[in-house]
Amino acid sequence: MTDTINKSEVYDVIGIGVGPFNLGFAALVEDVPEINALFFEKKTQFDWHPGMLIEGTTLQVPFLADLVSMADVTNRYSFLNYLQTHNRLYRFYFREDFHIPRKEYNHYCQWVTGQLDACKFGMNVKQIDLRDFEGESLYEVVVENEHHPEEENRYLARHILMGIGTVPAVPEQFQDALGEKVFHTADYLYKKANCADAERIAVIGSGQSAAEVFLDLLEDQAAHGYSLHWYTRSKGFFPMEYSKLGLEHFSPDYTSFFYQLPQEKKDQLLVDQDLLYKGISADTIADIYERLYQYSIGEDDPDIHLQAMSAIDRIQPLGNKWELRGFQQVSEEAFMVDADAVVLGTGYKPNLPDFLTPLHDFISLDQQGRFHITEDYRLVIHGTERNHIYIQNGELHTHGVGAPDLGLGAHRNAVIINALAGREVYPVRSINIYQSFGAQNQPVTN
């Protein structure tokens, strides 16, 4: 026996999460008549990494990596149209900088969400199951209203689009220490005030977030008088790869090349390519160095310590402080330091949502528990060939370093929209760069 449904109440796709990638999808799909879409977001409004919207920080990609432009520059939800709508176009023009403030990017995305009725905020997806309705398999999406938790609504869709992003990654040995004085960079602006009266602050990690936190604390050091220590297990405080040809790794061409490789090769490449997506921007390094230089004028010697090649293994309470135990991996020396506050720039990890629990037996995973994902961004699901779950920014292990990059978001959305519509809504071109990543065979001549 199957349940009865009203066909007009079935969505072609329901998106879970409204971050930049699903928001870009909503903007691009709004005028596609074949696709009826709806999006749910647990938060009550769009806010992009609010704990890291430090004054003066910018995107690490040019403004063209907005929600839509790399798929459709004429789309009304482009960043340039946002500027024109807010009478900021000339100001942006005279600024002559492709990298926009994060604060402005966040406001731009909020401007887009305010125009898209399909994006519903304060709606927490609790469960997704695949059920049979009058002979048609559909996903049933159970949603709780955050404003009225007693209300539980059910929606039906042929396909699901997961855009739930990543969550802060905190090593297991640090988790017991988490609190008001030991916290991830994701919570930095919320808990920064807790550091104001500290005698010593430690920052752990060498990515962009750790560097921005260190710089922000460095700029406030003179006012508060704390000592500042920065540790990383990386070989140094190195810049992210930002050469022109290096940037071509963030292209559809490289994504296609990477996808065809054996998984063993992919995993090794990702380890070797960490500076493509895990380093620090050269501008941030320059700003840090300039501040350190200014502090050193007149033989001033503030208590600042930077130490690479060093893994912090343990954070444990020491009275009202925290004791950090570490190991210098090259000189093989153990060391110990105490701190009043510790900021963890330990990165992010994929978010494996509980709402997929009813489908666990059907979703194919590799030996490391990661999703098997098709080239067009579908999870491999056993038992159905018609109902797909597409994924946004969960395919680093299958599609390469461009997975979390804002500049490839519109391309990925174009691929998914074309697949759902069954036609080329947005052109997807195969040659976009100058170099070839695979071997190019040419005729052999005598």
From TrEMBL:
InterPro entries membership: FAD/NAD-bd_sf, Lys/Orn_oxygenase
Catalysis performed (reactions): L-lysine + NADPH + O2 = N(6)-hydroxy-L-lysine + NADP(+) + H2O
Oxidoreductase in keyword set: yes
Pathway: Siderophore biosynthesis
GO molecular function term, any single one: L-lysine 6-monooxygenase (NADPH) activity
Enzyme class: oxidoreductase
Keywords: FAD, Flavoprotein, NADP, Oxidoreductase
EC number(s) stated in the UniProt entry for this protein: 1.14.13.59
Pfam families per UniProt: Lys_Orn_oxgnase
Necessary cofactors: FAD
Family of the protein in this entry: Belongs to the lysine N(6)-hydroxylase/L-ornithine N(5)-oxygenase family.
Protein's name in the database: L-lysine N6-monooxygenase MbtG
